[in-house]
User: Which sequence fits this backbone?
């Protein structure tokens, strides 16, 4: 298979561009996504290729254009909307929580809402409390939508293509700190189905369940732990909803130990769901230690760089948490 | 009322639709009092001219977004009366399979995108449908958005007016100003109560119309639709009054009996009947016959709904996602 190197941002752009070339019904709306290319440059060059009718700059009115995406989807289009920061989901939470995921259900299955809401998520950029959150658990809790967080350029492209082709609302949370990271991506068309976890590293001693930016940090921790005689298996769930619990259960049965790592605040975080799913499964009877979680402290993201780093999981904290299982 | 002459069959149809809307609401109210309606329901008694006058002026392929007080809008848009009544009684045969209820009555196959329970949401979604129409170059279709005076204070509604204005979307904003948002009189929450003044601020031409005069509404919407098809969005404020209470919990503590009574005298159906008889279109007996036909359909719908089965668990679990 012919491969090429792309950044995470380029991979997302390629996925959207290819789908827009393939299907006239796909278009994108967002604040300053045209000539400005979006706050993180994801849509670079797209308005030049597709024109202002398909790469649509919007007013600073998240309700207006996310709602328009819901309506356009109900009327047969396949809209993508970009929120400049995932924190702004709160501005249009009605559209994301009450409208897009519920229309099909409320209308007795007579309508579908094939839209993608994509947005940069997570901290580490010095953007402070209102531009750094990881709010995926709030979305995953809602029946009727799907929630995706890719960790590599390869996953980002394949998952984005699946998201655009999906007939349900898909919330696609991109990781700000991964936008410039590089990875190999196939030249030809490929899809990664939503709801399939990926074992990013095979190991026999402990399962680390994680996603997004934390995958690479867990991989780094695993290299150190290997030298100390602990062989980690890393399960990247890739989509929170639907959740591929079977891959997690199979891994935990094998390793008998499980740590869950996410950047989001630990309290009420998605790790609690994963831990409970494991405890309610046959994997529980294989565990040699309780399932453990590592997430962010129970505070908003602070501006100070040292504080920002230290309230979140770090490689040393992951190493310590793994060792604590034994 | 209008001086122009109309086709008799058209007027008869209009009168029948208004009667159906009224009798439907009266029946729902009665069923509610009998304890047969689960949850809540919002009735639009007194607002029939807005729904009927507006929707009859639209094209068959136009989309309609209704309000949560929109039984009259759904009926006029052509939803099956049996299926609507069955939905209100939470039956499997309801237009939403019994999982939507009074507040979410919809039928996308009839281009009626339903009542929405969260105010302001219909406005932003209506623009999305209008955007789809525009993108696909469908020349004879618009989106008609009903919303109330209360919803006009939602940011989403104002954002939607702005978006429609800049993108020249084929959205017709129809504000059914029924004077009250739940218990709150418009004057307590809106400093400028002439709501038609809001459109021009967003580059959207706006007019007021007497919302209790069904033919005035019809003519205004017909003209507005032409504007929307060629120029872009427009706002019509249809001024009317909600005779029924807000919902089941309404004790009418915020308004006087005299006020309600005075609006009952201005009932849009009585007013239309007077016009029809005085202008020689129908005799009172003929109008009574039309009203009786409407009643018979509502009676049959009630029986249909009562005889229908409850939905099974699959209705709750199988339509969450497109598989």
Assistant:
């Amino acid at each position: 298979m012919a491969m090429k190197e792309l950044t995470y941002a380029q991979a997302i752009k390629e996925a959207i561009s290819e789908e827009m070339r393939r299907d006239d019904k796909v278009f994108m709306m967002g604040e300053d996504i045209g000539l400005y290319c979006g706050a993180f440059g994801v849509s670079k060059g797209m308005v030049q290729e597709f024109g202002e009718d398909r790469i649509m700059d919007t007013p600073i009115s998240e309700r207006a254009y996310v709602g328009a995406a819901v309506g356009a989807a109900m009327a047969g289009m396949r809209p993508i909307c970009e929120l400049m920061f995932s924190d702004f989901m709160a501005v249009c939470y009605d559209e994301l929580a009450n409208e897009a995921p519920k229309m099909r259900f409320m209308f007795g299955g007579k309508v579908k809402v094939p839209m993608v809401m994509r947005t940069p998520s997570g901290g580490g950029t010095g953007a402070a409390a209102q531009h750094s959150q990881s709010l995926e658990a709030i979305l995953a809790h809602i029946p009727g939508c799907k929630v995706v967080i890719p960790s590599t350029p390869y996953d980002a492209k394949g998952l984005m293509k699946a998201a655009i082709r999906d007939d349900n609302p898909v919330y696609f949370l991109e990781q700000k700190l991964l936008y410039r990271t590089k990875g190999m991506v196939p030249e030809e068309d490929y899809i990664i189905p939503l709801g399939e976890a990926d074992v990013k590293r095979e190991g026999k001693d402990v399962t680390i369940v994680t996603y997004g930016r934390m995958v690479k940090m867990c991989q780094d921790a695993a290299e150190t732990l290997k030298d100390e005689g602990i062989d980690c298996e890393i399960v990247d769930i890739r989509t929170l909803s639907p959740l591929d619990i079977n891959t997690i259960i199979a891994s935990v049965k094998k390793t008998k130990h499980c740590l869950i790592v996410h950047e989001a605040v630990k309290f009420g975080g998605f790790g609690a769901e994963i831990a409970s799913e494991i405890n309610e499964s046959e994997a529980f009877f294989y565990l040699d230690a309780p399932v453990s979680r590592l997430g962010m402290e129970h505070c908003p993201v602070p501006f100070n760089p040292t504080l920002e780093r230290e309230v979140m999981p770090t490689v040393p904290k992951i190493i310590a948490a793994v060792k604590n299982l034994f | 009322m209008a001086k122009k002459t109309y086709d008799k069959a058209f007027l008869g149809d209009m009168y029948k639709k208004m009667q159906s809307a009224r009798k439907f609401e009266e029946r729902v109210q009665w069923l509610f009092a009998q304890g047969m309606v689960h949850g809540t329901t919002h009735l639009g008694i007194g607002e029939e001219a807005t729904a009927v006058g507006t929707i009859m002026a639209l094209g068959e392929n136009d989309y309609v977004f209704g309000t949560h007080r929109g039984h009259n809008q759904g009926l006029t848009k052509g939803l099956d009366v049996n299926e609507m009544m069955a939905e209100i009684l939470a039956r499997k045969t309801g237009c939403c399979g019994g999982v939507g209820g009074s507040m979410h009555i919809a039928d996308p196959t009839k281009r009626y995108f339903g009542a929405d329970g969260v105010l302001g949401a219909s406005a932003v979604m209506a623009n999305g449908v209008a955007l789809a129409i525009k993108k696909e170059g469908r020349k004879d279709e618009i989106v008609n958005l009903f919303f109330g005076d209360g919803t006009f204070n939602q940011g989403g509604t104002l954002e939607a007016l702005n978006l429609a204005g800049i993108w020249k979307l084929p959205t017709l904003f129809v504000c059914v100003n029924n004077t009250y948002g739940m218990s709150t009189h418009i004057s307590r929450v809106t400093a400028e109560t002439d709501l038609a003044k809001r459109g021009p601020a967003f580059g959207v031409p706006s007019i007021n119309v007497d919302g209790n005069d069904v033919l005035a509404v019809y003519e205004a919407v017909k003209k507005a639709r032409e504007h929307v098809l060629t120029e872009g969005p427009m706002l019509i404020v249809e001024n009317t009054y909600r005779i029924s209470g807000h919902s089941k919990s309404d004790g009418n503590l915020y308004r006087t009996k005299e006020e309600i009574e005075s609006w009952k005298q201005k009932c849009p159906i009585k007013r239309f009947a007077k016009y029809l008889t005085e202008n020689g279109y129908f005799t009172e007996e003929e109008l009574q016959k039309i009203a009786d036909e409407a009643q018979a359909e509502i009676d049959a719908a009630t029986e249909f709904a009562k005889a229908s089965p409850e939905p099974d668990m699959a209705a709750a679990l199988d339509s969450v996602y497109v598989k």
